[in-house]
Amino acid sequence: MPYSYDTDNIFAKILRGEIPNDTVLETEHSLAFNDIRPQAPIHVLVIPKGAYVSYDDFASNASDAEILDYTRAIAKVCEMKGVAAEGFRMISNAGAHGVQEVPHLHVHILGGRGLGRMLERG
Ligand code: AMP
Question: Domains along the chain?
């Protein structure tokens, strides 16, 4: 069941206003907020407001308006955080092999320091 959505996941609770978040940007279909356990000086999560588990779920099933909004929200966050000049990394973990902790689509935007190689063996 790769696309079954758990409405009790923590980002669904954030979207319902049940728990707080440190908002960076909110648009019609997307929300960006600072990661609670930042792994770099800049570590922002960008999520769609719709109930999508992963990027492939979103890209397959979201409306054109949602996809446009989400893509532009990611760009806006990069602009707001000024990461384009020195570079940044975008990560979207999915499923067991991707070690996805929260089963609501999120893109991590990491920057503010050199981030090392993408993957370490192990
Ligand atoms: P992932 O392993 O890709 O699913 O990453 C989930 C991310 O969500 C981790 O980097 C967590 O630190 C982050 N996270 C979990 N709970 C919260 C929260 N309440 N607010 C902000 N970030 C969170």
Answer: 10-111 (3.30.428.10)
For residues 13-40, b (16+ Cβ closer than 10 Å) or e, as one string?
ebbeeeeebeebbeeebbbbbebeeeeb
Measured from the Cα of 43, ligand 1's closest atom is: 10
Nearest ligand 1 atom to alpha carbon 92: 3
Take residue 52 and report the two structure tokens written for it: 């999508």
Residue whose CB lies within 8 A of the most ligand 1 atoms, among 8, 9, 10, 33, for a mutation test: 10
Q: Can you read off the two tokens belonging to residue 9?
A: 């996941």
84-116 per-position pLDDT tens digit: 999 999 999 999 999 999 999 999 999 999 999
- Looking at residue 24, the DSSP 8-state letter turns out to be E
- pLDDT for residue 3 is more than 70: no
Contact assessment for residue 51 and residue 2, using Cβ atoms and an 8 Å cutoff: no
